Amino acid sequence: MSKPKLAIFDFASCEGCQLQIINMEEEILDLMSIVNPVEWREAMSEQSEDFDIAVIEGSITRSGDEERLRRIRERAKVVVALGACATCGGVNKIMNNFNIEEAKKAVYQEASLMPHLNTSLTKAVDEVIDVDYKIHGCPIDRKEFAYIIRCLALGKNPEIPAYAVCVECKLKENICRYEQGEICLGPLTRAGCGARCPSVETWCFGCRGFIDDPNIYAAKEVMNKYGKTSEDLKDRMMLFGSKQRYIYE
Amino acid sequence: MKIIKLDQTSFNFWVDRLIKKQCVFGVQSKGDRFVFDTLTRAEDLRLDYDVTILPPKKYFLPQREDLLDFSIKGEYKSITEREPFILLGVHPYDVVAISQMDRVFSADNYDVHYMSRRYNATIISCDVQRASNQVFAGSMNTATVQAGFDILLTKIGDSYLIDARTAKGEALLEGLTVRTEPTDKDLQERKQVWKENARLLQKNKLKGKPEELPELLEKSYYDPIWEEKSKLCFSCGSCNLVCPTCYCFDVQDDLNWDMQTGKRTRAWDGCLLRDFAAVAGGHNFRRQRADRYRHRFYRKGKYMAEKIGQVACVGCGRCIDACIPNIANPVEVYNQLFMSQKNIYIPEQVTLLKTEKMTERETFYELKMDSGLDLGHEPGQFVEISLPGIGEAPISVSSSPTQTGTFQIVVRAVGNVTTAMSRLKPGDHVGVRGPFGSQFPVHDVMKGKDILIICGGIGLVPIRSAINFILDNRDDYGAMTILYGMKKPKDQLFATELEEWSKLPGVQVLQTVDCYDESWKGNVGVITTLLSLIKLNSESTVAVVCGPPVMYPFVLKDLETMGMTAESIYVSLERRMKCGVGKCGHCQMNEIYVCQEGPVFKYSDIKEVMEAI
Asked: What pLDDT sits at residue B341?
């Protein structure tokens, strides 16, 4: 079995998800034993036009990015979106709630007109090209990344949870955040993180994006039961759920 | 069988000794909840717990476990090395659940992973000391157990009775130097605990017997309840995961980095999860939320009953707590199905156990449902009493739901039904429909508050239900003041009970009559005159008012003058009622059906309603 060639590309992001891969430490050698890295800006100087698996980090915010992304898609056998920015637009998508010129001005002040700061609305990777697999989270989970790469190297579809964070939260025997009077996005958010946030006694921020069939009606109805409003819920969704289909329901 | 008695100190010593011998998983606190976890010292053990977040099934069927080591060449190796361990503090309902799981994993295809853990376990059960908010083990016959464990602990006063029922259990008592034999009185008290627990562990009450559930569900597949309730379902599977009898799992492979060897693991799964019944081709055999929601109730109430001969719900109430939208309550669902299966106008037969003339016009009756079930009422609710050929009449229930087995009513002979009733003798049968209507808020609003009760005439009858409920749960409430007014001294109801109540600490009883005679030594005057005799902390008090219609405007006005807000006053209203089920229209005031939304109302809810007061 020849090792698949792996390339990692970054777009608009903090590059923290790539850093998570580097942070695999001793396991990074194991990773290299099953894939052959040919381009990975954060870890190596080489570049390559020839690869099998393209891992895309970051969201797409400029028209030039879209062209670059399409070129990657054409050359890759498998495209994997890495981290919340790539899978759902992530924190970058908060910008889409505002008028873009005003947003730029608020962030860059007088420099906002400089050409290199030019930007358009944020898109997730799958809003521009077809994506084969998504590695969710902000940041990604290293173990899940390793598992997915092993599956791809074996030629198997990785089993990425389709169920909500509540499942993993219950398995950890956590006290439900709703019992603590908090709005938690766990019931709407895709699992896979091991209910990381509720396990350290804070609500789920929804960084892994919505499950495929979230019950938004129920989410709004339970707000009444817990003395909150649908506006409170919307606020909580803004960080990772901005301008996604379900937020309008 | 060996029973010994240990005081708390010796008990802790014994537990610490167990910890030295074996791995002990015991109940400990986690925030304001409880969990089973590795016990390192006896003082962390919390046998006074109400319910644990996850059931102890996690020690037999862990959340995630490795089943097999494999190589891609096709070699498989079973992973089953196990150490003996002790599970300490398992409540009876969880013992029943474990026994059910044992049957599932041992019968037909023997599951070596579950069973090897099971054989290595010693189960120390403990009778429940504190009922959880949602428990209904009493309804499922799982409040106490006599089998399925190695040792049973029961707290009697400051000591524990330790009852070893198996050789494994007896082995844990060996070498104890301090050991007292229990007295007959101790054993008697233990029986009392069992009896009490069957009654107390019924925060939700099933309106039928567990063994009736398979047949009920047989007829309910197309009931609208599945669609209706599941609209709020997140499909999060929480109800499955916390359930002591849910055991479905998913199996997955993961390779090691060598890409040659790996592990096949299983992890808890849940039938409420969207893809639980989806196949690789894309078809989902339970695609709709309602399909999956219904499946859980069928699995517990019918399929498992047919498989193992016992309904697979033990009444722990965990699913109710775990469900964020609050749709998982099995009792609510089964009761609604019981109701929709029957004709609401057909009464159930009850037998008169006792009748007693209380005054010239009022008679006291104690009744028992022929079905053997409890009436299942709450303080303040009423029933329709039916006498065939004569008719029906709405009658308040006077006994507290804490008194089980029977219920009590008081009837004033004024109409056809009530007059005919006064001719009945013990052993006679009548029909009963209900309980109907709203209740005094003893479970929420009144908790922790001082209680002011104001009743006139037969208004004492429904309120007595709340008074006795409060007295049976005395620690949950503050001081109680009971003001009772009647026309004449000989109208007095429950004279002995009033006398007994007045002697209780934290209870004040004041009575008054409108017209007195020589027999009366107490206050004279209308009920409002008693209000001037009491000290009222309007901030911390909830008032409950029930009496003849003429009483309300005066009492309510005075209460508001004394600083009470309309939000903290509850009134029980009388109306003409024929059906009791919100249909016939007689009791209607504006848009409100008193038989459904009342008879107990928060005063602020009806203050502005014309015709109400």
From this structure: 83
